[in-house]
Every structure is written in C-alpha cells, then in structure tokens.
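Render this sequence as a predicted structure.
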Amino acid sequence: MLQSLLYLIVSFLASVAGAVCGIGGGVIIKPVLDLCALSSVSTISFLSGCTVLSMSCYSVVRNLLAGSSRVDAKTGTPLAVGAAVGGVAGKQLFSFIKGLFDAPNMVGGVQAVCLAVITLGTLAYTVLKSRIPTRRVENAGACLGIGLVLGVMSSFLGIGGGPINLVVLFYFFGMETKTAAQNSLYIILFSQAASLLTTLATHSVPEFAWSALALMVCGGIGGGMAGRAVNKRIDSAAVDRLFIGLMVVIIFISIFNSVRYFTS
C-alpha cells in the first residue's frame, strides 16, 4: 500500500510541476523513482514514459479545446515530427546501451550521469539566458533536426522531454517561458507516443504492476489538470524560479543515483 501511494504521490506532484514548467514531469519522476529503487531501471523508464505521455496528452488537448494553445504550428509541428522519429531512435539506443553491461541496471548509471550533465547545462543557461542572444529558426528542415535530437535524448533518458526542451525553445526560437512550456509539452507528446509504440511493436515491454501503471497515469493526468490551473495564476518569473529550484534538486539526485548504480 505504501509503495502504491508513493507511485501516485510522485507522479502527481511531478506532473503538477511538469505542467507548470513545460518539462513533462518525467525529469522528476525518473530520478526520484530510481532513488527509491522501487523497480528495475527498464520498468521505471517505461512507467515514467507512460505517465508523461498521459499528462502531456491531457494538457495539449485541453489547451486546444479551450482555445488557449500557444503552440506555433510552423515550428512546433516539424519539431514534434522530428521528436517522434527521435523517440524511436532513443528507445533503440537504450536497448543498445543496456546490452553493453552484464548488470541490467548499469544503464541507469549512464542515464543518471547524462541527466546530471544536461540538467547542469540547462540550469546554467536558465540563470544566464538574459545575457545570451537568441535565434529565430524558421526552416522546417532545421526544426526537424532539432526535434530529432530532443526526441533521442528524452526517449533514452526516460524523462519525456524535460528541461532541455525549454532551453532549445528559448535559444533557437526566442520563446518566452509560458509559450515554451506549451510547445515543450507538444513535442513531448509526439516523442513519448512514438517511444511507447516502438516498445509495443518490438515486444520489449518490461515487467510491471498494472496497479502501479494505473496509479501513475491517474497521477499524471491529475497533475496535468492541477498544473494547468496553477500555470494560469502565476507569471513567467515565478515559473522560472520553480524551474531553477527543480533543476538543482534533480542534479543532486542524479549524482547520487549515478554513484549508487556504478558502485552497487
């Protein structure tokens, strides 16, 4: 019962923060569940991906129905298509890296190191972004390429999209925080849907408890609802502060997880 409650609480709170900041929640769910060691790395990546998919699907569809979507179709759709292709490639990369080690969970150490490095870079950019000039990429081919890279990283790390999406949207497209958050969730939706379909098509679904999946999906959707409401009531500066605080916590958890996996 305690383990089931933990799945629900982690997925809900992570999805609230994910919906507010546009980071999908997986960047919080994955390292926290790795820290708690509730399941294998493969199972946690799968459950995290399903949760992020449910939350991003709710948020994107709800914004479309409410007429409040800030997704720029000209750049957002090529990014999302590229992310979908990257989601498939990222899943294959995960399987390849996992096969390099005798201990299946060693891939978790690789994921944790990559996540710590990416998150540290994201934190540095976020703090200094007011001093860094942005670009205005409009070429569809360039958008596809950028989306491909985002999809590979998000699928391999099992985080949905996470903070790297926002940095890319800030730097390459000059989006402000709330607009970037919505476009990030749109990209996450495509990359995670492609990743899940690849897992199903290749019959590589790890062992998992259906109760855990149900609770996490419910937590993801509930968190998406709550996060969307919170996002409407706070300004971009508050979103930035929350984002920075989360990045600091994720960096420390990822470092701890990497040491634990590589020394166990």
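Summary. The chain is about 80% helix and 0% strand. The chain has a mean pLDDT of 85.
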